[in-house]
């Protein structure tokens, strides 16, 4: 069986074939496709050579299709409908009709803060959609885009590769947090009080030292780190009814989950701030579904941050 040289095949010939089947006339087909009659005749000759069949035979003023042409007609019609209706159709997205799944990668911090509001926002506009949150961190989020695959990522990561784009959502700062029923430290907390208790760390990579330790060393003091966890909720449970102090993001300290007799204050040293980014793959930036989801997340998180800071 001889293989077809697909590079030499002009898909426009299928359009020519369809027009000839519809009109049964070279001249009428030419008019329908806004080409000259000689160009139409040339295309018919190419079709006959490609398919090794006359395809149309003249009888009077009409071009009568051969058996092979009649056999091919429904298949070629389906191919043209697929190309025009699916492959070349205008990219649109109707949220209220969407029945697929949105997959959003989020750091532990971002998921705890925004998952509920994101669910409400998506469920209101796309009630038939499913939503899947996946925990990511700085070390794995880029690979997770393809392995999950993820639509978007929210976290304190700033990709430098051209494969990714991002938008800064807001800037976050740190506060100290402790059990106010066990220790009545004055706010803002003093350095002496800050180092008087064992410290708990939120540590995504498991490290027991951070930039805070360098700041303290420069001041000639040290802290005792007692426990570390990757998860904010774990640290929150540890803080209650224990002699521990922890540095956490300010919005995290303002969550209702953290309001049970836990107190927060500005730290006595420079802990630094960090940005929260919304990240997406460059290759998907023109996709309407991604654009819709991206804009919705930006609006939702902006409202959430304002609400946290106002209530806090």
From TrEMBL:
It comes from Aliivibrio sifiae. This is LysR family transcriptional regulator. It comes from the Bacteria. Belongs to the LysR transcriptional regulatory family. Transmembrane segments: none annotated. Keywords: DNA-binding, Transcription, Transcription regulation. SUPFAM superfamilies: Periplasmic binding protein-like II, Winged helix' DNA-binding domain. Residues 9-66 form the HTH lysR-type domain. One of its GO terms (molecular function) is DNA-binding transcription factor activity. The keyword Metal-binding does not apply. Pfam families: HTH_1, LysR_substrate. The keyword Transcription applies.
């Amino acid at each position: 069986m001889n293989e077809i040289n697909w590079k030499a095949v002009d898909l426009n010939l299928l359009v020519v074939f369809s027009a000839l089947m519809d009109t049964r006339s070279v001249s009428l087909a030419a008019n329908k496709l806004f080409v000259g009659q000689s160009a139409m005749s040339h295309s018919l000759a190419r079709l006959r050579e490609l398919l090794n069949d006359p395809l149309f035979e003249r009888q009077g003023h009409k071009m009568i299709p051969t058996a092979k042409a009649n056999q091919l007609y429904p298949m070629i019609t389906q191919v043209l409908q697929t190309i025009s209706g699916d492959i070349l159709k205008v990219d649109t997205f109707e949220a209220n009709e969407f029945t697929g799944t949105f997959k959003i990668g989020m750091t532990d911090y971002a998921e705890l803060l925004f998952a509920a509001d994101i669910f409400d926002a998506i469920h209101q506009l796309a009630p038939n959609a499913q939503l899947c949150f996946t925990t990511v961190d700085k070390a794995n989020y880029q690979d997770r885009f393809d392995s999950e695959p993820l639509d978007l990522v929210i976290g304190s990561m700033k990709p430098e590769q051209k494969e990714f784009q991002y938008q800064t959502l807001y800037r976050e700062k740190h506060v100290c947090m402790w059990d106010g029923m066990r220790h009545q430290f004055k706010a803002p907390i003093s350095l002496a009080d800050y180092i008087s208790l064992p410290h708990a760390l939120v540590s995504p990579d498991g490290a027991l030292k951070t930039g805070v330790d360098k700041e303290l060393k420069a001041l000639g003091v040290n802290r005792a780190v007692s426990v570390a966890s990757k998860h904010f909720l774990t640290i929150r449970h540890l803080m209650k009814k224990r002699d521990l102090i922890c540095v956490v993001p300010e919005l995290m300290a303002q969550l209702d989950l953290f309001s049970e007799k836990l107190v927060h204050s500005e730290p006595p040293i420079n802990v630094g701030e960090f940005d929260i980014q919304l990240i997406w793959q460059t290759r998907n930036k023109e996709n309407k579904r991604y654009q819709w989801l991206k804009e919705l997340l930006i609006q939702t998180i902006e409202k959430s941050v304002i609400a946290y800071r106002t209530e806090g």
